[in-house]
């Protein structure tokens, strides 16, 4: 096994963690908090310790191990840096995504370093923290890479300004592990002995949490929200029950260095500690160095978007064809030129483009204008629009096609070349413009509403195709006074419908900060809400393949039609997963007792060739890729072709589907304690690629 050097930059995640105040309190208790710092332990006005952010990294670390192909027997948590952007709220969902940034080679016998960086956002839309983790891979050195640049933290040659003593209990790891790090080394006597320790050791990150409390108590007492950065290197393990001291030196305004030492031996357990603190910097969404295209920005909403983007630092391509409200006429340079002039008067940067989005050449030329003037495209707002309202029978083909061409085909024409640039650079924001008329229907607008819902379909798939390239695709449904709506919206309302009231949502959705992709938001008059296509749980009317009668459906109509418990799906696979789950019974119901056959992940793969049912494989040509994280995990591939089966460790270049799972869950599943469908719907089993083909596994292998 060698490190997978191609994994640098490949996205890991996103992983989500739902949590409540109880999780935050459990973590605080795990790192020694109690009545002396009740702020972290009492749900009334609860403050969350910033180092609680660490608990988001376990899934990430599992996938990092699988992606990097690191030898699990040799890994140690080397360094940890947390940069805090906003305080962690007491409950919600945290979403974490990142990538491996570097590999460093210390030499053949000395090991390698894997540096990964990830960002965590809260469901309230705020970026909470950036985490930079360095994994020391003791057994993976000597691959010919460069060594890490030397990093030195200077400790003042004087007594520390603060010394905070603590005595973690003998049982501390038992509480700490409940926050997610359940590695046996911290609980299992035998495992600890096998690993060369006399008994289970403290989690380094548990001691890190003690240090975080000590630093807050000394430097920003009672104000954990003022912690800006905390970095350190793990040096030596500690046994539970050993007294520790966090020693702290202030080194400048809002800066300190720190260590954790064993209070009895004075040996350093955590070294190179750095700590920064101060007020949360004012959050301003900026677009400096970003290049944005806004189609149809010679007037109305697009003009306001272009002005606001430029005001916040973006270089803007102001596209406008300059035709009539119904798209007729030869076009005019005036609207785009006027807006470019306005932007320049503000000190911003902009170029005009007069192409028609409704043609493929027009779309290509709009993107070319951005590349020629500014060298790239980061943001595309598909905004250009026209109206040709007619009741359906009077809707002549020309009116139908012209409207579809501007709105739906227009978005295709510009987004496609822009997406290619974004994909190449690994970053992009695309905003599509739908309409409440499309989402909910409006008399006389079949052409417009069909186009506007077509854009939602475009988003649904483009968000998936963009995900791994850092491209987020969302949709806005604005309501604003403009040339388009001057005779549609009630006149009394027009002055309340300033386009400026829509722009904040559009800007947020194309900002780097934007945490979502594939969502639709209504925006107008100062009210903002999310719209979504949701699906109810429905009813299984026939389980055994018998065709139900319409009457049978009617008898369960309430349940079929109910939206109680409805949910929005992120993709087709999720919906198919639920559909299949409705037909499968949980292991408990099927009497799925453990057959107890497998105690190690590798045993399962060793057994697969034997368990292969060749008769079931006629005409089957698939590659299943397994990515098993955690203890004993790794990568295995299983190739079925021409009735034969090949199973081996490693990664396949083009797997049909990839099954990712934690080692413990995988063993539970293979030992019959966890039904595959339960694992899938609970998120324990993630399937990428062709989910339907993964259904073959049960047929192809008789493992239990
Ligand atoms: P607007 O008429 O003020 O601005 C649209 C701009 O697009 C115009 O300057 C026009 O010249 C330009 N344009 C039209 N066809 C073009 C083409 N083929 N190529 C390049 N430029 C072209 O309209 P408004 O209200 O600002 O609309 C912007 C977007 O918001 C449209 O997509 C519209 O459908 C959508 N929308 C607006 C609502 C509102 O309440 N204003 C409601 C729902 C959606």
Rounded Rg: 29 Å
Multimerization state: single chain
CATH class of the largest domain, named Alpha Beta
Could you report the average pLDDT, rounded to the nearest whole number?
92
Q: Main sheet, how many strands, which sense, barrel?
A: 10 strands, antiparallel
Number of domains: 4
User: Rough shape?
Assistant: globular
SSE order and pairing:
Elements: E1 11-19, H1 21-30, H2 57-68, E2 75-84, E3 92-107, E4 111-122, E5 127-137, E6 162-166, H3 172-176, H4 189-194, H5 204-219, E7 227-234, E8 244-252, E9 255-262, E10 268-277, E11 291-294, H6 300-311, E12 315-319, H7 334-345, E13 349-353, H8 360-374, E14 379-381, H9 397-425, E15 428-433, H10 436-440, H11 446-467, E16 471-478, H12 503-509, E17 520-524, E18 527-531, E19 534-535, H13 550-555, H14 557-561, E20 567-568, H15 572-581, H16 601-611, E21 622-629, E22 634-641, E23 644-649, E24 657-662, H17 663-670, H18 676-681, E25 685-689, H19 691-694, H20 696-700
Parallel strand pairs: 11-12, 11-14, 12-13, 14-15, 15-16, 16-17, 21-24
Antiparallel strand pairs: 1-3, 2-5, 2-7, 3-4, 4-5, 6-8, 7-10, 8-9, 9-10, 17-18, 19-20, 21-22, 22-23, 24-25
Helix pairs in contact: 8-9, 9-11
Bound molecules: 1,4-dihydronicotinamide adenine dinucleotide.
